[in-house]
Write a structure and sequence with these properties.
The complex is a heterotrimer.
Chain A lengths: L1 H8 L9 H11 L5 E4 L5 E5 L10 E6 L4 E7 L5 E6 L11 E3 L5 E6 L13 E4 L5 H5 L7 E4 L4 E3 L2 E4 L2 H16 L7 E6 L8 H9 L3 E8 L18 E6 L7 H13 L4 E5 L6 H6 L6 E8 L8 E4 H16 L5
Parallel strand pairs in A: 3-12, 3-13, 13-16, 14-15
Antiparallel strand pairs in A: 1-2, 2-12, 4-5, 4-9, 6-7, 6-9, 7-8, 10-11, 11-17, 14-16
Chain B lengths: L1 H7 L8 H11 L5 E4 L5 E5 L6 E7 L4 E7 L5 E6 L11 E4 L4 E6 L8 H4 L9 E3 L5 H7 L5 E4 L4 E2 L4 E4 L2 H15 L5 E7 L9 H8 L3 E9 L20 E3 L1 E2 L2 E2 L2 H14 L4 E3 L7 H5 L8 E9 L6 E4 H20 L9
Parallel strand pairs in B: 3-12, 3-13, 13-18, 14-17
Antiparallel strand pairs in B: 1-2, 2-12, 4-5, 4-9, 6-7, 6-9, 7-8, 10-11, 11-19, 14-18, 15-16, 18-19
Helix pairs in contact in B: 1-5, 5-9, 7-9
Chain C lengths: L2 H9 L9 H11 L5 E4 L5 E5 L9 E6 L4 E7 L5 E6 L11 E5 L3 E7 L8 H4 L9 E3 L4 H7 L5 E4 L4 E2 L4 E4 L2 H16 L9 E6 L7 H10 L3 E9 L18 E4 L5 H13 L5 E4 L7 H6 L6 E10 L6 E4 H17 L2 H6 L4
Parallel strand pairs in C: 3-12, 3-13, 13-16, 14-15
Antiparallel strand pairs in C: 1-2, 2-12, 4-5, 4-9, 6-7, 6-9, 7-8, 10-11, 11-17, 14-16, 16-17
Classes of the chains: A alpha+beta, B alpha+beta, C alpha+beta.
């Protein structure tokens, strides 16, 4: 598990530029699937056929491949790069951060001289790639390139820290579930979605195409277990989190109760999640066409959207187990 | 002149009927099929046989205001429809309703303001529109609740390249579509004149659902921020440097394969272009590319200085560049060079 | 069922966004006696059909939302105090001192508490109490409380609808159960008649969290036109006159980008012909009602918006005048009986 998480989190793949991470995932799932395809938005869609003899609607699982990043908008005459955010990038998390461009060129992010820290905002920040002038910089970067955090995964025992845990950890859960999956009743589409961080876009078009009977997203969620954290009853190590609500979804009681029942029956550690802000692919899926029942299994994660996102392996394993048990069921709402 | 007349027609979101009939009049006799949907989007369809189908989309609505009520003395209370900086509206002429009743936006004169007030922008509640009515009854006869209010700006050249006017966003795009349709390209083409862009990109998704094209190109007016007090790295686009290819905005991340081809074509044809280099704002592209299973979409923008204000500036070379670039793309599709495949 | 009884029964039933089942069941059982057919879709929207003479034609959709604002249990702390997460937009200033119900494994009563004013510093007392300093006190310790309630359980205001007089009442969730009641009134008025086009009366879900039920139900129904019925701000002191409507002056006809001009004129004409009082509601921003979603569904739908005047919106003590509900229902019914294929086709004539 650790190995695949390392590989996934360290691969380049900001929103709209998921080509490389898509190839990595494709490699992992090849040989396990009945069909693999991509669509216009760049979603990777992996089908595992079910055992049902009767007509059933498929189940769609979604984990997003994309990560947040910095799009280069200007290269100044001294070779410094100005940028804008792709997804939710907080300026305070960028100061001194190391980043890498698609060309492989590395850089650091810093800010103009400020009188006060509260003046800090993205427009006052730049990427320094060590270029001496504009011409040298242009060899490594063009306008529109997207840089991402450059940070290897580290293991702290049960807990792992990496950039892009959001949501490569979800991708890892889907891949593991696919590897272990036997006897799924319904057809299951494992969808590695694109462009979640910029507004839940890939899930929307892929769900429209697949028209599933049930959708389950696997994504990270915040925790309330750090010093002076916002009140929230989710903690690292507390098990897979079954989402009750976030700003994109209020989980249908049918789906939530099914997940709780299965977790309790199989003795899988779980917690219930009420998230004030933030959305997941499940939000887009449940509003597809005439409406789709959808839920979300969340992996508790500290320091989301920083270069040091932390998850607990035991929660990840619980999520894989819960997903596996759900897929064994005959799903017919 | 097309762009002058088109920008002077009033048409806020939900009140695009006059713009629609003006456009239709200009295209009648061009052998196009016209249709209208229930939101008010208008389609002009050009057929060219067995080719891919491209949709060009520009929105007809402009930012403006709506009559909300009256005061006992016959002044109108109003509210903006679309994003307008209320600091720029005081002391401007406006037209109220489809019959273009003349009005002016007024506020308390500077003499009567306290020192501290003078530094603060007027709030909507402090502003009013005066149509010369002397009573509430007279005002009600001339202006109905819900009537549209638009700026009374005349469009004209201020030098040999640059025009001033209102509503270049996005009547300039509409002008481009009209010109391109008239050129009868060798490809199936639908000009979609959309509604309600300024109040949340509301018409374009519906338009794409109706047209279901193989490729959509959105032609938009965008901010040119190449003005004083704005550092170069914050220029979104620069006026006079050609049409801008959108990289991303709040609603849309451009497909890099399509953008690459557009840039190649511009270079090959010697058409000056730039990139739109900010992620703020949204355009119809944001809605269109997410329709159903996703529609390949390109965003092209025309740099306009002082967009969403009573008067903005547009360089006519940029507009011509946009028309030329779109024609080049269409020709490339007809030749089979364009990467239209839906799959990665 | 009589309109007044129906509205009281709806108002007193719990049903925050996403958890509308109890309300739905009441609507279904009542409308089954008035409609040709009643169904519930995937997200829980209730759809009651009155079949028309021309049943091949796409239906007219008339929508009002059945969900209400409320809260969810967010955390149960060591002492048994319950932290809450709002569902929909609520002014936290009206919360302290409210009585609520937590709908857990069993019904648990609680009151909303905050730090007593005696213990607040003078500068704290100058400020509104923010939501994160507010909690629900059920008078129980964590051990016993967690046997009854869990994270995510819904919370509603503990309010019973009451009548000030024969016409004016106050209660929770009249936004937009008053709208649902106007659909009920229309169904009552349509008894014994047959419209030209099928009518789908829809009690939508999840409006308060982003018009979600209307998005999926309008996709399902593919309506030829849609009318949303919601509530509007009844005039109260300190409110801008232009942004308010008046109680007992009839439904307000919305005018703005989300209203088709021809549909507006038709509704206005019918109101005049039938002596139904009405007022105008200019709305420059098209958001915030089911009309927003219906208009943008699939290939575009002509929509209109009717607002029932309501005071104290999104509070536990909303106030309406039942006469406005009746008039709205009557206007809807008359519209349904007059709508024909020719009118619908005219909406897309260039």
């Amino acid at each position: 598990m650790e190995k695949i998480i390392k590989k996934l989190t360290e691969t380049y793949g900001p929103s709209g530029r998921e080509d490389r991470i898509r190839e990595v995932i494709k490699e992992e799932v090849s040989g396990l699937a009945d069909e693999i395809r991509t669509d216009y938005l760049g979603n990777l869609i992996v089908l595992k056929k079910g055992t049902a003899s009767e007509e059933t609607r498929p189940v769609m699982l979604a984990a997003h491949m994309d990560e947040i990043g910095l799009m280069v908008t200007h290269i100044d005459k001294d070779g410094f790069l100005r940028f804008t955010n792709v997804g939710g990038v907080g300026p305070s998390r960028l100061v001194g951060a190391r980043v890498v461009l698609p060309s492989g060129k590395k850089g650091v992010v810093f800010h103009e001289q400020l009188k006060e820290l509260k003046e800090l905002d993205l427009e006052k920040m730049y990427i320094d790639i060590g270029a001496e002038n504009q011409d040298e910089a242009r060899k490594h970067v063009t306008i529109g390139d997207i840089a991402i955090y450059d940070q290897p995964m580290v293991s702290l025992g049960n807990r792992l820290v990496a950039k892009a845990m959001d949501d490569r950890i979800g991708c890892a859960v889907l891949i593991s579930a696919l590897k272990e999956l036997k006897n799924n009743h319904n057809d299951v589409y494992f969808v590695f979605t694109s462009q979640e961080e910029v507004g839940i876009r890939g899930a929307r078009t892929s769900a429209y195409g697949l028209n599933p009977g049930l959708g389950i997203a696997v994504d990270v969620t915040m925790t309330g277990d750090t010093p002076e954290a916002k009140k929230m009853d989710v903690k690292l190590g507390g098990g897979a989190a079954i989402k009750v609500k976030d700003s994109s979804l209020i989980t249908s009681p049918l789906v939530k109760d099914m997940m709780v029942e299965i977790a309790e029956k199989a003795n899988i550690k779980y917690q219930l999640e009420v998230l004030a802000r933030g959305g997941t692919d499940a939000g887009a899926i449940h509003l597809t066409r005439e409406g789709v029942l959808a839920g979300c299994i969340s992996i508790p994660c500290r320091y989301v959207h920083s270069p040091a996102e932390m998850v607990d392996l035991r929660d990840v394993e619980a999520a894989v187990a819960l997903l596996g048990k759900i897929l064994e069921e005959k799903i017919d709402f | 002149m097309l762009i002058k007349e088109l920008t002077e027609v009033p048409g806020i979101a939900g009140r695009e009927a006059q713009v629609r009939s003006y456009i239709k009049d200009k295209l009648v006799g061009e052998d196009l099929g016209f249709s209208l949907d229930a939101m008010g989007n208008m389609y002009a369809r050009h057929k060219a046989g067995d080719t891919p189908h491209v949709m060009l989309a520009s929105h007809m609505d402009e930012v403006g205001f709506m009559v909300m009520g009256y005061d006992p003395g016959g002044l109108l209370k109003f509210a903006p429809v679309g994003g307008i900086d209320l600091r720029v509206v005081v002391g401007k002429k406006v037209y109220v309703g489809e019959d273009k009743v003349l009005g002016i936006v007024g506020a308390k004169p500077i003499h009567l303001q306290k020192k501290a007030e003078q530094n603060k922008p007027f709030s909507r509640q402090e502003l009013f529109i005066d149509i010369g009515a002397s009573s509430e009854e007279e005002a009600k006869r001339k202006a109905k609740i819900g009537d549209q209010i638009t700026f009374a700006t005349r469009t004209e050249y201020i030098n040999e390249k640059v025009m001033k006017g209102k509503a270049f966003d996005d009547r300039a795009g509409c002008t481009a579509i009209i010109e391109i349709l008239k050129s009868k390209p060798r490809i199936n083409l639908t000009g979609a004149f959309t509604v309600q862009e300024e109040v949340g990109l509301r018409g374009a998704g519906v338009a794409a659902s109706n047209v279901r094209p193989d490729l959509a190109i959105v032609l938009e007016g965008t901010t040119a921020s190449d003005v004083p007090e704005s550092p170069e790295h914050r220029y979104s686009t620069t006026m006079g440097q050609g049409p801008a290819i959108t990289l991303m905005d709040r609603s849309f991340l451009a497909n890099q394969h399509l953008n690459k081809r557009v840039a190649e074509l511009a270079e090959k044809e010697g058409i000056r272009y730039q990139f739109r280099r900010t992620n703020i704002g949204g355009t119809d592209a944001g809605r269109i590319h997410l329709v159903e299973e996703g529609i390949p979409t390109i965003g092209l923008s025309l740099p306009c200085r002082y967009i969403h204000s009573p008067v903005s500036l547009l360089n006519m070379d940029d507009l011509q560049g946009m028309i030329d670039l779109v024609k080049t793309i269409l020709e490339d599709i007809a030749e089979g060079g364009f990467p239209l495949g839906k799959n990665y | 069922m009589d309109l007044k009884k129906f509205i009281a029964s709806l108002s007193n039933t719990p049903g925050i966004s996403g958890m509308e089942k109890e309300v739905s069941q009441k609507i279904v059982s009542t409308w089954e006696t008035l409609a040709d057919e009643v169904e519930v879709d995937t997200l829980g929207n209730v759809i009651a059909w009155r079949k028309g003479k021309n049943s091949n034609h796409p239906p007219i959709m008339i929508a009002a939302h059945q969900d209400e604002i409320g809260f969810m249990v967010n955390e149960i702390d060591k002492e048994g105090f319950v932290r809450i997460e709002p569902i929909g937009g609520i002014d936290p200033r009206l919360l302290p001192g409210q009585e609520v119900v937590i709908w857990g494994r069993e019904k648990v009563l609680g009151i909303v508490g905050a730090k007593p004013p005696h213990l607040q510093k003078p500068e704290e007392r100058e400020k509104a109490i923010p939501l994160d300093k507010i909690f629900v006190d059920c008078g129980e310790k964590k051990e016993s409380l967690t046997q009854k309630i869990r994270i995510g359980d819904p919370i509603t205001f503990n309010q019973e609808l009451e009548w000030f007089n024969e016409n004016v009442c106050t209660g929770k969730s009249l936004d937009d159960r008053a709208g649902v009641a106007s659909l009920h009134q229309a169904l009552l008025e349509l008894k014994g008649t047959q419209p030209e086009i099928d009518i789908a009366f829809v009690a939508t879900v999840q409006e308060e969290v982003g018009v979600r039920g209307a998005i999926t139900s309008s996709f399902l129904l593919k309506p030829c036109l849609g009318i949303a019925v919601d509530v509007g701000f009844a005039q109260r002191p300190g409110q801008e006159k232009e942004l308010s409507i008046e109680a007992n002056k009839g439904p307000a006809l919305g005018i703005g980008p989300h209203v088709h001009p021809d549909l507006f004129s038709r509704l206005q004409g019918i109101a005049v012909e039938n002596d139904i009082p009405f007022q105008m509601e200019p709305s420059p921003h098209p958001g915030g009602t089911d009309a927003y979603a219906i208009q943008m569904s699939r290939c575009g739908v002509a929509t209109a918006l009717l607002s029932i005047p309501l005071a104290n919106m999104h509070s536990p003590l909303e106030v309406i005048d039942i006469r406005d509900v009746r008039r709205t229902g009557k206007l809807l019914a008359r519209f349904c009986l007059q709508a024909d294929v020719e009118f619908v086709e005219g909406l897309t004539c260039l």
